[in-house]
C-alpha cells in the first residue's frame, strides 16, 4: 500500500480518474459481499443469500459505470484504487471482518453502503459533464437506498424463524469456540494448580519461592492446555470453530486460573499472602460455577458441588502435603 505522502489528493482527480476509481470500488465491494456470502453459506445460508443479492447490486453499478466510461473515454480504464487516493474511505481487510460475528458483519455492510453514498455525492459535486453527474448522483441515491434494500432482503430472506435459527447457531458457535474451551481451561488452571502452589507455600513459608512455583505451574498448564485444545480437532466435522481460537481461549484462561492464586504471594508476609490467595481461590471456584450455569445450562448448585467440592479437596491435599 502506498505511503500516506504518496497518495493522490481526491481534489486533483479528473472525471476520468473518478469514474475509474468508482469502477474499482464497486468491483471490490462486490468481492467483499461474495466473500461474506461464501463465509456464511454453511452456517447461515439465508444471510449468505442476502449478501449474494447485494453483490449483484454492486455488479449492476459497476456495469453502468463501465458503459458510461466506455462512451466517454474509450476502452482503457486507468488502474486507480482506494489505497491510491488520500482521504478515500478504506474497507477493512476481508480476512479480519470474516472473523466477526454475524451481526457485526451485517453492521459492516451497512457502513460500506453509507461510505459509498458519501463518495458518490462528493464525486458528483466535482464533475461538470451532465451525464456523468447524473450517473454519480443516481448511484449516490442507490447506495443510500441499499440500506432499505438490505432491510427488504433481510425481511424476505430472513423471516423471524430463520433469524432465530441463525442467532441460535451463532450462540452455539460462540459457546463451542470460546466459552467451552475457556471454561475448561479456567477449571483446569484454577483446580490443578492449587496443590503445587499451596504445597510449596506450606512447605517453605517463602512467598517468593511459592510465587515462582505458581507462575511456572500456571504458564506450563496454559501452554499444555492450549496446545491440547488446538490439536484435539480442526473443527471441520464437530463445528467447534477455529482450533487456533479455541487453543488461545483455553490456554489464556488456564494460565489466568493458576495465576489468580499465585499472584498474592508477591506480598512478602506469608499469612497475609496466603489469606488473600484462599479468598481468591473461593472466588474463582464460585465464578466457574456461575459460568457453567450462565452458559452451559448447568444447575448452579450442581456446578457448585462439582467445582467447589473438587477444588476444596485439591486445596486440602496441597496444604496437607506441604505441611507434612
Number of domains: 2
Please tell me the CATH architecture of the largest domain by its name: Up-down Bundle
User: Strands of the biggest beta sheet: in what spatial order?
Assistant: 1-2
Strand residue content = under 5%
Radius of gyration: 29 Å
CATH class of the largest domain: Mainly Alpha
* Series of H and E elements: EHHEHHHHHHHHH
Give the number of helices: 11
Proportion of helical residues? over 70%
3D structure, described in words:
- Helices cover 77% and strands 1% of the residues.
- Helix 6 packs parallel to helix 11 (300-323).
- The model has no long low-confidence stretch (mean pLDDT 78).
- Strands 1-2 form a two-stranded parallel ribbon.
- The chain contains 11 helices and 2 strands, in the order E-H-H-E-H-H-H-H-H-H-H-H-H.
- It folds into 2 domains: 4-158, Ferritin, core subunit, four-helix bundle (Ferritin, Up-down Bundle), CATH 1.20.1260; 169-323, no CATH class.
- The chain is mostly helical and 324 residues long.
Task: Chart the SSEs and their pairings.
Blueprint: E1 8-9, H1 15-40, H2 45-73, E2 85-86, H3 94-97, H4 102-125, H5 130-157, H6 160-192, H7 194-204, H8 207-232, H9 243-260, H10 270-296, H11 300-323
Parallel strand pairs: 1-2
Helix pairs in contact: 1-2, 1-4, 2-5, 4-5, 6-8, 6-9, 6-10, 6-11, 7-8, 7-11, 8-9, 10-11
Amino acid at each position: 500500500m502506498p505511503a500516506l505522502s504518496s497518495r493522490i489528493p481526491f481534489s486533483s482527480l479528473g472525471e476520468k480518474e473518478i469514474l475509474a476509481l468508482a469502477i474499482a470500488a464497486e468491483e471490490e465491494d462486490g468481492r467483499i459481499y461474495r466473500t461474506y456470502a461464501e463465509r456464511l453459506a454453511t452456517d447461515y445460508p439465508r444471510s449468505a443469500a442476502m449478501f449474494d443479492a447485494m453483490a449483484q447490486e454492486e455488479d449492476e453499478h459497476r456495469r453502468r459505470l463501465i458503459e458510461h466510461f466506455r462512451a466517454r473515454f474509450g476502452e482503457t480504464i486507468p488502474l486507480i484504487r482506494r489505497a491510491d487516493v488520500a482521504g478515500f474511505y478504506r474497507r477493512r481487510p476481508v480476512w479480519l471482518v470474516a472473523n466477526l460475528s454475524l451481526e457485526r458483519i451485517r453492521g459492516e455492510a451497512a457502513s460500506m453502503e453509507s461510505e459509498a453514498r458519501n463518495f458518490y455525492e462528493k464525486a458528483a459535486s466535482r464533475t461538470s459533464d451532465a451525464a456523468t453527474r447524473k450517473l454519480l448522483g443516481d448511484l449516490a441515491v442507490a447506495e443510500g437506498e441499499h440500506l432499505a434494500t438490505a432491510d427488504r432482503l433481510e425481511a424476505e430472506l430472513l423471516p423471524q424463524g430463520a433469524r432465530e435459527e441463525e442467532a441460535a447457531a451463532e450462540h452455539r458457535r460462540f459457546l463451542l469456540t470460546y466459552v467451552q474451551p475457556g471454561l475448561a481451561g479456567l477449571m483446569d488452571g484454577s483446580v490443578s494448580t492449587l496443590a503445587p502452589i499451596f504445597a510449596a507455600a506450606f512447605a517453605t513459608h517463602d512467598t517468593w519461592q511459592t510465587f515462582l512455583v505458581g507462575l511456572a505451574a500456571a504458564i506450563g498448564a496454559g501452554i499444555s492446555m492450549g496446545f491440547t485444545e488446538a490439536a484435539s480437532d480442526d473443527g471441520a466435522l464437530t463445528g467447534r470453530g477455529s482450533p487456533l481460537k479455541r487453543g488461545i481461549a483455553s490456554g489464556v484462561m488456564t494460565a489466568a486460573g493458576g495465576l489468580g492464586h499465585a499472584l498474592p504471594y508477591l506480598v512478602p508476609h506469608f499469612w497475609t499472602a496466603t489469606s488473600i490467595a484462599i479468598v481468591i481461590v473461593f472466588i474463582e471456584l464460585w465464578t466457574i460455577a456461575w459460568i457453567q450455569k450462565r452458559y452451559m445450562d448447568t444447575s448452579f448448585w450442581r456446578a457448585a458441588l462439582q467445582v467447589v467440592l473438587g477444588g476444596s479437596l485439591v486445596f486440602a491435599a496441597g496444604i496437607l502435603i506441604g505441611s507434612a
